[in-house]
Amino acid sequence: MAAMTFGSILVVCTGNVCRSPIGERLLRQALPQMRVASAGLAALVGQPADALARRVAEMNGVSLEGHVARRLTAQVLQEYELILVMELAHLDHISRIAPACRGKALLFGQWLARREIPDPYRKSVDAFEHVFALLGSASQEWAQRLSR
């Protein structure tokens, strides 16, 4: 694969309060030169990050302070050069709302054997820790590839 050069990344999940805010902040840490944001397919618009997501992120040195959930729209998708989603179903959703953007959308877990990142919403601390670890590994993989 040829070298990828991107200046902006959008991280997408369902509610934009658990996975995508964590993924966004991890990528911002790893790729400070890039514009990174997040959105949700069925976003809990205006809500802060989930309390358990904030706690687990904080325990791992990542702040979700100031996060405000927003809805994914075709317009938002067009503003970013790379779109990273948590599940294959999210790719289908993007194909429906913005077919022209489907080609720049990949799984966040693309470099973890194309692994989907499960939704920890309303689950245990263990579920959040597992998801944080997956997002951490995946963001490091993206950072290595996008920094070349």
UniProtKB/TrEMBL annotation:
Keyword Hydrolase: yes
Catalytic activity annotation: O-phospho-L-tyrosyl-[protein] + H2O = L-tyrosyl-[protein] + phosphate
Phosphotyrosine protein phosphatase I domain span: 7-145
Gene3D superfamilies from the UniProt entry: 3.40.50.2300
Superkingdom of origin organism: Bacteria
Keywords associated with the record: Hydrolase, Protein phosphatase
EC number: 3.1.3.48
Keyword Hydrolase: yes
Pfam families: LMWPc
Similarity annotation: Belongs to the low molecular weight phosphotyrosine protein phosphatase family.
Protein name: protein-tyrosine-phosphatase
Classification lineage: Bacteria, Pseudomonadati, Pseudomonadota, Gammaproteobacteria, Enterobacterales
